[in-house]
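Format notes (please read before filing issues)

Several people have asked whether sequences and structure tokens are stored in separate files. They are not. Every record keeps both together, in the order shown below: the sequence lines, then the token lines. Line labels are part of the format and must not be stripped during preprocessing.
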Amino acid sequence: TDDGPEREQYFQRMLTEFEDRELVFFDPDIGLDVPSVPYGRKYSSKYLYLAEVVEAYRAGMSVLFFQNVVPQTRDRVATDCVARLKEAMQPRVVLTYQTSNVTFFLIPQRRNASHFQDQDREIGETWGGEITVIKPRASRTFNAPSFGKGRNSRS
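Then the structure lines:
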């Protein structure tokens, strides 16, 4: 819904219903919010808002969502999303997976981070060229993904 109060009520109901879940998957039409479409305005229902990701994460859930991308901007968009997530949430890691049209972001709770990181190898082996597991690159402020070369790439 584009209606802000209605969306907030829906989100609060979801948090209550899913309080015992380890992982929540958000399926926005487009992906993470953009400044040109404020919360509660027309077309805002097509986006997942950073505040919603933060709220689900703070409620104790690991969060998975995707971002539709065009190949020409995929790396820049993904790097920007990871930076926003890291700044807002300070998670241990943001795991990133790419397909030709979509980038998935997984923000595991600290208690689950090792489990999800261990699954990266299996994802690479199972999905081969369809899903690329992006290896985080260390930096002073956060682990930004090193785009262009996945963990399962051969070179």
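For reference, the curators noted about this record: Confidence is low (pLDDT under 50) at residues 138-155. The two ends are 45 Å apart (CA to CA).
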